[in-house]
Amino acid sequence: LALYFHIGEREEKCIIEDLPSDTLVYGNYKVQRWDTHKHDFLESAPGLGMYVTVSTLSGEVLLSKLYGPEGTFFFTSLLSGEHIICFQSNSTRLLATAGSKLRIHLDIRVGEHFFDESAVQAKEKVDEVSVRLEHLIEQIQHVSKEQDYEREREEKFRKTSEETNSNILWWAIVQTLILISVGIWQIKSLRDFFIAKKLV
Fold this sequence. Notes:
Layout (H helix, E strand, L loop, with lengths): L1 E7 L3 E8 L4 E12 L4 E4 L6 E7 L4 E7 L2 E7 L4 E9 L11 E10 L6 H6 L5 H69 L4
Antiparallel strand pairs: 1-9, 2-8, 3-4, 3-7, 3-9, 5-6, 5-8
Keywords: Coiled coil, Endoplasmic reticulum, Membrane, Signal, Transmembrane, Transmembrane helix
Subcellular location: Endoplasmic reticulum membrane; Membrane
Pfam family, one: EMP24_GP25L
């Protein structure tokens, strides 16, 4: 996921990522500040930082840290579900002039285990093929986790659909019984009326 978005200084902006459990998430960002004289986003001034906070919907905080104008953050999801990733600059009220805004370039990668070429060179006795094979196995395990998570979501959706269909069926049966009861009552009322008027 690569994107950019605009926020005001001191404004908080959050995105939501739906993640399987025990999954590594890698994020890389860069901040640019709007220049009112050049009418363009320029490289951020030194000293401007960004608070990055990651939490679950239940409020459990997985990451809360202040980074610089450029930064890289990592976290691992503990449970499957939606995770909230929030960004807020550390601008003070004196620096944040009216209308000042920032552009955040963000690249988020989910479940990637990055292959470090320097690690292969540093360990001369390690066979490069076996290292690449381990990397491939990790990627396969991640794909398998993703599939298990999707199957789990499909199972929940199927159960919900079945429960809804069952409720609709019972409601249709109840409606039919009510209509039959009302029909029988109307016929009996008409019959009693005709007998009372000696029309039958």
